[in-house]
Manganese ABC transporter permease (Deinococcus piscis), 273 residues
Amino acid sequence: MTEWLTDPLAFGFFVRALAALTLVSVLCAVVGSWVVLRGLSYVGDAMSHAVLPGIVAAFLAGGNVLLGAALAAVLSALGMNVLQARSGLKQDSATYIVFVGMFALGIVLLSRTPTFTSDLSHFLIGNPLGVTSTDLWVTAGAVLGVGGLLLGLQKELLLASFDPTEARAIGLPVRRLEQLLLVLIGLVVVLVTALVGTTLSVSLLITGAAAARLYARSLGQMMLFAALFGVLGGAVGLYASYYLGTAAGATVVLVNTVMFVLLLLARGRLARS
């Protein structure tokens, strides 16, 4: 009776994909909770497009495209923060100016490299089943590094996010903390892009955290629930794609979306009872 559960585990690529989705779900839970609490979903969306010039430039230089994407994400994050500080624009306006400029640069570079079109499809739709052992180690390192950093600075980030005046009064570097959060969002988007592509990466970052917020009463609970929802959605989606023969990344995102809707409906019923 359990063959349907154990049969896919006979394949190394499936086990690696499952492990990668588990690690990424934990990472997205930690960072995504901050994104949802701060209302920064648009930043994640912008980052998923702003990495394009880094990907293309790295390809042209014969380098690692994920490192190129990570560099573009960091530059975009810092650019958003600097533009907002120096122009007086609201964060959403500064974000979209940088996002549009970076994405346009990527298109210009792409127009000069017609042979890159087939390679680009990997970053548009992603491929969890193509994860290597090296990718797993990199993702595990990111989980430990990013998770440890955010947990260690949790009190400072909370104060800087929701009472920046008080934070400045006691000497906290509010702008630096803001830059750090934007950079971490960008780096997480890059990692998730390798699994589900740029078009779906924001969903993994946001959906689990948004579902967790429906039930959580603290930031810690929110991160825990988001991780549980993400791991469950990743496993169910991966198994579903295996047996249905569908795109793994898109199937995972679809399962997470359905899970969010079901959790939302369940909360509504609990509220009425």
Observations:
- The chain has one domain: 3-265.
